[in-house]
Amino acid sequence: MTYPIGSRVKIRGEEWLVQDVRPTETGHYAVRVVGLSEVVRDHQATFLTSIDPIDPIRPEDVEFVPDDSPGYRRTKLFLNALMMRTPILGSEVTVRGQAAMDDSDYQYVPTQMALERLRPRILIADGVGLGKTIEAGVMLAELIRRGRGRRVLVVAPRSMLEQLQKEMWTRFSIPLMRLDSVGIARIRREIPQNKNPFHYYDKVIISIDTLKNDDRYRLFLENCTWDVVWIDEAHNVANQHTDRNRLATLLANRCHSLILTSATPHNGKPESFAALLRMLDPTSVADPEKIAKEEIRHLVVRRFKNDVLPQTPGFKDVHDAAVFCPATPEEDELLIRLGETLVHAIRSGKPKRDALFSVTLLKAFLSSPTALIKTLDQRIRRLGRKLAEDPEAERYLKDLRDLKLLRQMAEAIPMERSSKYRELKKLLREWNWDGSPQSPRVILFSERIDTLIALRERLIRDYGVNEDVVALFTARMSDTEQMEVVRSFNEGTSPIRLLLASDVASEGVNLHHRCHHLVHFDIPWSFIRLQQRNGRIDRFGQLNTPEIRYLILKSDSEAAGAETRVVEKLVEKAQRIQHNLGDPGSILKLFDPDEEEQYVQERIAEGDPLDDIFGDDDDWDLDFDFVPRTTTHVSIREKEVPRMYRDWLELMEDLQAELERDRKNFERIHGFRDPNRQGEKIRIDRERRRVTISVTPDLKSRLRSLPPEARKGEEIHLTTDASRVMRSIRMATIDGAWPRDHLLWDIHPVADWVADRALGLFPSRTAPTLTLPFLEEGIYYYLIQAQALTESGHPALAEWLVVERADDGFRARPFEGRRDPLMRGAWVNSSKENDVTGPDMDIRRVVACAREYVNKRLKERQRELAERIREEKERLKKWYWESIKPLRHQQGTLLDDPLRAARLRRLEAERHKIEFTYESTVNELESMLKIKGDPVLRVCARLMRG
């Protein structure tokens, strides 16, 4: 026996509404319900069918009751609520044009591709600035609307938790409980210490490091399943045999749908990319060394700015330029000295020159003299310890003298006398920046925190501004401090006018809302990191031309200039990527910023020419990456879901009137006001397309995942105008508040509250009967909801149909929503008295006709699904033999060799793992095909001419 979502059941003598059904490991079901009868009204509970008998209300038990509300609004509300709770099948997109976002085709491609799979699982690997957050939000919204996203877990870097939480709520109405340090403290106050917070909150956002470092949360996770898991910046979990990778793999195995997002989906090693692919589908890759692009194309979306420009006006042309900073005589002298200084490696054994450290010194100086001093101090301390162990080590004495001389020279170049600082001030003057509130906001990046600290002290002194005008953003700050800086920088009233950031701010953080000026005070020796930095302001939604400048120390001296040419070359190539290539990994083919930096430093240390290091432009191989590019057009197929109302305003007007009528009837019958409805008020402003609802205890509990600042006041302000919400989002950044206006649409928690209220408008085991003047004489129309679940707990069928009873018999057809003949005229109350109420003598034959139609549709659906599963099994079988073949080959050569028993055991373990994956995947596929019980029907309304 199954219990369709939206159906009524009787449990422990009370009536409940089924909200969700999940299979248990014992073969029974966990049924989540909300109370409808007076004693349990609005109370949420979960019952196990193995413990409590659950009495479903059979379709034949229906009793028809009249609807005397104006325009049959009770019936319309009731039917619309049932339609909202009906799962959506098919691969068409249903949420397009409804969220608060600038709409472009390319944003729906990941969702379209994922919906075409048996399990929606995708890696969104679009380049920096394309809006992977929005793309992931679209997919989350689609899955929630389909009834496949009740439980959602989002895992993200700690600096991005609040940003993602706010984006998901303000643009998509998805409430996520934020478990940062403040959120965890809040949980400890609200729920018992031994209670699993992931059971208490259905939708959660948390950082990967919190999960990795807190054993308690790891244990909680192991006892949870999710409808959807989204891992942002997924490259951080790609390296195998790390805690992050093991945790991500655990999450991937405990969810139905999986979203991975990363602009750098691997580090150049196929093993790391294969690790992500195997999270999406354990059977996607047999051999990581032989990743076939065509075989994984359905799992990955990979595009760059130039790929999507024809589809969207959402990007601005970038104005970037190199700013050459003529070296002072002191800087020239220091550069020459750096080129001549070559110290010894600090380690035992034969003396060896440490060319790599010499490059490190150069790189530090190209950041700032202050950074060079810090690097020298660290080496000088190490040399001091080494000499204390071996005072006779002559080579170390010379190194110490040379490094102290370099330090003395660097000390003679304070920040205010350095050429880059001088050019920075000229640039700020060119941009009309003086630290006043009228100054444009500027982001300045540097690799070295010491450089940033020195810059901040000097700028505050030179411009005579308060300390809060020039802010720092570094990895030394806590998660809440980082989020506070981002929030403040994006506020209109924030005093911050210059944000000095290390590269911890180069990934994921949105800084483009009120800023379009960016300075690279030093140049990272990585094209990927350069593009990541630029992506903070050069991204979808930027309203102004991004102004990007690269500060390059330039020497006219041939001896000194040789030391700075690497930076010129880096910037030259980075600009080519910015304007033509799009993919920063295509130059060095390393695909990891740290590895790019290390590679460049090592090649320079070896004395290799720069053209050999970076290659010739004509030799760049744009197809080298083993991540498939999504360059072909993916057409977005859309579907309108059945509904009774043109818009939510019309629906809310009807609900407001019905709830007011119910309150008055209760008071007239009982002599006092309904205590469960005290304070429940709805106000509608049609001109402004706004709905204001009082925050009742019921609504408050539905919004408990949101932070207090998003739940201020005793009212919720909603609008059906997405553009108004987007304006509200922009206005809210003036003072850092959360937007006042929420977007009212199908997945907002208020929509769920509305559905619960509407479904309670008709008593148990009843359905409305009504007469409409435009219907054909002599025919009765029965509107029926049909659902069938598979053994996997997912819907195999979810349809609305109409059974027509005429003199010549019964016939069934699909209900076509607002285009259906039942909807072709206005629903107005008939003057004709409708006395055909109570039991219907023909209801059994109506239900039998509906069941015959549904069974036929279910067989068609099963045939379609069986073909897809057959193809998937064929692919799965191929994967199995490709994976097992090397192990079978090895087994025969190892059996007779006892010295290699350990390796044999490892191979056997790998074999068992492959066999387990194969068998469990086959079982999962077969469970998607098997129907659990009979299809469940619900007679929802009867219509006739009148």
From TrEMBL:
Q: What's the source species for this entry?
A: Planifilum fulgidum
Top-level taxonomic group: Bacteria
| SUPFAM superfamilies assigned | P-loop containing nucleoside triphosphate hydrolases
Keywords in UniProt for this one?
ATP-binding, Helicase, Hydrolase, Nucleotide-binding
Using the record's annotation, list all stretches that form the Helicase C-terminal domain. 423-594
- Residue span(s) of domain Helicase ATP-binding: 113-283
Q: Where is the signal peptide?
A: none
A single Gene Ontology MF term assigned here is:
helicase activity
Fetch the InterPro entries from UniProt.
Answer: DEXDc_RapA, Helicase_ATP-bd, Helicase_C-like, P-loop_NTPase, SNF2-like_sf, SNF2/RAD54-like_C, SNF2_N
Protein name (record) = Helicase conserved C-terminal domain-containing protein
